[in-house]
């Protein structure tokens, strides 16, 4: 088996590619899934690779399949807009695999004359007061566009890890326009808040309408989960404190 893209009959024409694979806080994947759901995008291709983790996934019917990345397509023929959203189960586990899969996506972008590549993901941050969206791009004009949209551009440079970063680096020699949007996240649990901040920027970049009902519900569920986690941690801390005090009293006695 080699890394390959299996395509269906639908072929995009000069699309915008949006890549959102699993990563920190599942930010990229949440963004991609919300776009797919909201636009009712249809699957047009599947990417398989031996560089993906070596396991099979089992669905609710007990059927197995290999890990994969999937390409979804949406178009508005009246306005001449086409978007291909790339998401999936995982990213490659080695640096060689990362380059192999990223190169395959770049070849796909070149094949269909992609107008723009947008990669999205999470940016690990201990300070979450403002919940910023960081950005980078392959040209000064695109950087200026990001700044106009309220994206924080760190001119000192921030590491963009994984497929999201490699796509930008590999796009430039191919003369493909590419930008990256990273939402601040702790990265410990799925972070729909960070994903929503990116989506509000993508709406302007893509010129489409996104239904935020689903992600707002996701945010409320995660708030409930985080509350329960904090309560459980507090109970553990109290139990540990009580055990220490009990042992201390027993020792003194």
Principal-axis shape: globular
Poorly predicted residue ranges: none
CATH architecture title of the largest domain: 3-Layer(aba) Sandwich
Taking the sheet with the most strands, its summary is:
8 strands, mixed
Mean pLDDT: 90
Tell me the count of domains: 2
CATH class of the largest domain: Alpha Beta
Proportion of residues in extended strands: 15-25%
Helix content: 40-55%
Q: Kindly name the structural category.
A: alpha/beta
CATH topology of the largest domain: Rossmann fold
**If you compute it from the alpha carbons, what radius of gyration comes out, rounded to the nearest whole angstrom?**
21 Å
Distance between the termini: 69 Å
If strands are numbered along the chain, what order do they take across the biggest sheet?
1-3-6-7-2-8-10-9
Walk me through what this model shows.
The protein has 253 residues and is of the alpha/beta class. It has 2 domains: 4-210, PAC-like subunit (Rossmann fold, 3-Layer(aba) Sandwich); 212-253. Helix content is 41%, strand content 23%. The protein contains 6 helices and 10 strands; from the N terminus they run E-E-H-E-E-E-E-E-H-E-E-H-H-E-H-H. The chain has an 8-stranded mixed β-sheet, with helices on both faces. Strands 4-5 form a two-stranded antiparallel sheet. A hairpin with a 5-residue loop joins strand 4 and strand 5 (64-65). Helix 2 crosses helix 4 (163-171) and helix 5 runs antiparallel to helix 6. The longest helix is centred in the last third of the chain and has 40 residues, at 213-252. The protein is globular and about 70 Å long. The relative contact order is 0.17. The mean pLDDT is 90.
